[in-house]
Specification:
The protein is an alpha/beta fold. It folds into two domains: 24-105 and 204-241, Periplasmic binding protein-like II (D-Maltodextrin-Binding Protein, domain 2); 108-201, Periplasmic binding protein-like II (D-Maltodextrin-Binding Protein, domain 2). Helices cover 41% and strands 26% of the residues. Helix 2 (46-58) packs across helix 8. The radius of gyration is 21 Å and the shape is globular. The termini are far apart.
């Protein structure tokens, strides 16, 4: 009898441990203002606000860990129960995650120093450039490589790309318009410093759950996000981080 009771207790304990693990979510992001960034020691941004609001509605409080993009992306692919905050949804990544979104649509293009390159008309022309700067393990790097680009030069972040292009160490760089505007401002450069020479991608920003996260969990997050859109919370957060102006974009 004692042996049976001991087995039952052990079984319940293991089941409880498995349940706790299943309910724990590792939340990862990287610094890409205004989506997610650390200021005065506090993590903030559009995507951070979205995740924190969803967690509040679900009664969750999983912390968001900040790390370089390549590391976050690798961990989201290789470690269980992981949520990657605000990656871009592309064909190459489609089967790797369970997606929630879109949270935001963005405009991505090929930029060069003003006057250095005439506007390109085809992908083949872009492939003939001496080198194109891309962020390591980013969607643009993956998509361009899949399209047969062999002139890609990977760097750690957008700031590095801008500085290298300013030093004439590459022909062009692949970057989102909003990210370029942020880096130019931080570096004290005029908006006219770089010119778009080709628009290549327009991916959407989403939340990406690892494939092992229970579907019920993903559905709960999705319902909470849809409720945010219905009650106006999503619209207020978008206006907070991306205020509408009269300036043509």
């Amino acid at each position: 009898m004692r042996k049976v009771l001991g087995c039952l207790v052990l079984g319940v304990g293991l089941a409880f441990t498995g349940l706790v693990r299943a309910q724990t979510l590792q939340v990862l992001t990287t610094e890409v203002p205004p989506m997610a960034f650390v200021k005065d020691g506090k993590l903030q941004g559009f995507c951070v606000d979205i995740v924190e609001e969803i967690q509040h509605r679900l009664g969750r409080s999983f912390p968001i860990a900040v790390m370089p993009w390549a590391r976050a992306y690798h961990r989201a692919q290789s470690e269980p129960n992981t949520l990657l905050v605000c990656p871009k949804r592309t064909a190459e990544r489609e089967q790797q995650f369970q997606w929630l979104g879109p949270l935001l649509s963005t405009s991505t293009g090929l930029y060069a120093k003003a006057g250095a390159i005439a506007k390109l008309r085809t992908l083949e022309q872009a492939k003939q450039l001496s080198s194109i700067l891309v962020v390591r393990a980013s969607y643009s790097s993956q998509d361009l490589a899949a399209d047969g680009f062999h002139n890609l030069y990977e760097v750690n972040d957008a700031t590095s790309m801008v500085r290298m292009l300013m030093a004439d160490r590459a022909s062009a760089m692949m970057l989102e318009r909003q990210e370029l505007e942020r880096v130019l401002k931080a570096e004290g450069l005029a908006p006219q410093t770089f010119s778009p020479v080709f628009e290549l991608l327009s991916p959407t920003t989403n939340l990406a759950f690892s494939r092992d996260v229970p579907r019920q969990t993903v559905r709960q997050w999705r319902r909470a996000f849809e409720a945010m859109k219905q009650d106006g919370t999503y619209g207020r957060l978008r206006e907070k981080w991306f205020p509408v102006t009269n300036t043509a974009r």
